[in-house]
Amino acid sequence: MSNISGAKTSREEEIAFLAMEQVLGVEITLADAGGGSKMPDGSWETHTGRCIVEVTSPPATALMAEWARAKKEGRPQIENGSMPVRMNDLAAVCNELLESTWAIENITKLRAQPAKERHLFLFARSYDVGDYFYRLSNSYEDGAMEQVEDITLPEGISDVWFRGQARRGSAQQPHATSLWIARFQAGVGWHRHVVVIDELDLPSPAPGIADDPVPAELRHPKDRT
Question: What is the pLDDT of residues 150-209, one digit of tens each?
């Protein structure tokens, strides 16, 4: 994802940055403000050096266009179609995604920048991919564990994150959302995390796709420039 000069984070970038900050204990700055599409989305410093992240998703242009039409016409936003379950085959699904053209473009962008760590943060706009990400990040509270093998990280990439299930907060915390995340780290393997995101810390959703659930003046996303 890319930002023009002076821009702030997109909603999807901010979700990723907030989640990573909670997990890693870092402060992420917007790296591509003014840098165009050649720069990664975010960066931070550690005692070992500079780290960078690119936030992206599989293309879903047709679906987003249909949802925009549905919102404009007052129709429900419905996703049609089917996807193979591929039970116990999630590692192969991940490897196939990372070999896709859209992923390679983002991986190439990360490789072009000097960094100690290069992170790729993936989210899904459509259910066909989102279901895989939900299962990757599943904490399996019901005890029914699905087997997930190690994936093959692209050369030069240290971590790949997969944004999974989101669950709204309680009546006592109406703006809080619990977010499940799977992370594959070079030399370590799989991690699974649950973070809490405050809706008021996020930019508004795209107006052509969804109505804002809270007044815009209540929002206070970080200034990351």
Answer: 999 999 999 999 999 999 877 678 899 999 999 999 999 999 999 999 999 999 999 999
User: Cα 90 from chain centroid?
Assistant: 17
Average pLDDT of the residues of the chain: 90
Alpha helices in the chain (DSSP H): 11-24, 61-73, 90-98, 101-111, 127-137
State how far the Cα of 138 lies from the Cα of 131, in Å rounded to an integer: 10
Number of structural domains found in the chain = 1
Cα separation of 4 and 26, whole Å? 24
Please write the tens of the pLDDT for every residue from 197-218.
Answer: 999 999 999 999 999 989 989 9
How far is Cα 135 from Cα 181, in angstroms, rounded to an integer? 10
Neighbours of 18 (CB within 10 A): 21
Whether 1 is in a domain gets the answer no
Q: What is the pLDDT of residues 8-24, one digit of tens each?
A: 899 999 999 999 999 99
Q: Which domain holds residue 182?
A: 11-218
- C-alpha gyration radius of the chain: 18
Of 2, 9, 18, nearest in space to 166 by CA: 18
Does residue 186 form part of some domain? yes
Strand order in the sheet with 159-168: 29-30, 42-46, 49-56, 117-122, 159-168, 176-185, 189-198
